[in-house]
Amino acid sequence: MKRKVGIMGGSFDPIHIGHLAAANEVLNIYELDEIIFVPTGDPPHKEELRAHAFHRLMMVNMAVLSNDRFSVSDIEIKNPGKSYTLNTLIEFHKIYKNTEFYFITGTDAVIDIPNWHEPEEVLKLCRFIAASRPGISIEEAVEKIKAIRKRFGGNIEILKVPMLQISSTDIRERFRTGTSAKYLLPECVEQYIIKNGLYREI
Ligand code: NAP
């Protein structure tokens, strides 16, 4: 039988409880063996991230410590050049034989797959789980996902995650304005942000 491994892809700028709860939901629902968090290095579609890759990686490492089914890969951060999901999946398939991969990320990112590098190949190498925020209509996402599957094939499912009401954007804004972000992210991550003076400026 194939092992089932989740790849949790995102900027994690910073990682928060919503990401951890989403990963745990997917682990339970799809009966995965483990989930690997893969913070983006130099995303092809973004000019810059707000916290340096080193800090984002440190925060993700600290956040997953308490779950023995969660781990972290620095594959996208340590590799020079742009981070393409295709390259990440090819590398993971080389390392983990006889494994089915579930790529978990936000719905916004998933509906943008047609603009990714070689979407058809990416969709052959994993199943996608699009984690959806509450309060955001998913009708449009459902239509876009249908169109992606028709054009490129593959398997994409939407999962509603109530805890994703928490967002990295809101957390960064709280640190910038000095508003407490307690309980929205692991305490060790909150302390790390304060100690290193992250997100004080936009
Ligand atoms: P992002 O900016 O970090 O996030 C986009 C949206 O999705 C935000 O609303 C975010 O919420 C949410 N989100 C991000 N990661 C999530 C996760 N694992 N679970 C639940 N929600 C999540 O994402 P991104 O930088 O666009 O990229 C997402 C993934 O797609 C990355 O792995 C990236 O490498 C990949 N990607 C690949 C290509 C390519 O290969 N050409 C292009 C684009 C994206 P928060 O802000 O609260 O996190």
In short:
This protein is α/β, with parallel strands linked by helices. The chain has helices at residues 17-29, 53-64, 75-78, 85-95, 107-110, 119-125, 139-152, 168-177, 187-196, and strands spanning 3-10, 34-39, 70-72, 99-106, 127-132, 156-160. The protein has 9 helices and 6 strands.
Describe the model.
With 202 residues, this protein is α/β, with parallel strands linked by helices. It has a single domain (3-165), classed as HUPs (Rossmann fold, 3-Layer(aba) Sandwich), CATH 3.40.50. It has 9 helices and 6 strands, in the order βαβαβααβααβαβαα. It has a 6-stranded parallel β-sheet with strand order 3-2-1-4-5-6, sandwiched between helices. The longest helix is centred in the C-terminal third of the chain and has 14 residues, at 139-152. The mean pLDDT is 94. Bound molecules: NADP nicotinamide-adenine-dinucleotide phosphate. The site of NADP nicotinamide-adenine-dinucleotide phosphate (NAP) has 25 residues, from strand 1, helix 1, strand 4, helix 5 and helix 8.
